Write the structure tokens for this entry.
Amino acid sequence: VQLQASGGGLVQTGGSLRLSCVASGRTSSNNGMGWFRQAPGKEREFVAAISWNGGSTSYADSVKGRFTISRDRTRNILYLQMNSLKPEDTAVYYCAAAMRAYSGSDYTQYNYWGQGTQVTVSS
């Protein structure tokens, strides 16, 4: 499974971005998927996760109410809609896929990772 993330960029505080992650290769629409991020000098942290059918989602407290994770199973695309962005959201964002229906916030449960896309929020 290959994951290609895109959609990052530079945005002002309060702005919006939508990240996309296209899955290719031996993909399965039954994979749980998620978004993680890593800021310079910090550890990777969980952002959001979604189950194989989109029926379950979870979010980090820091992004609840501002970010929305979704997926298009027919096209094998994962999305992260980010609204009301803050400077502390600045990071490289990674998409990930698991060999299970839902993996939540545990990054060790994800088997495949994309290359990351940079999000920078200016104050």
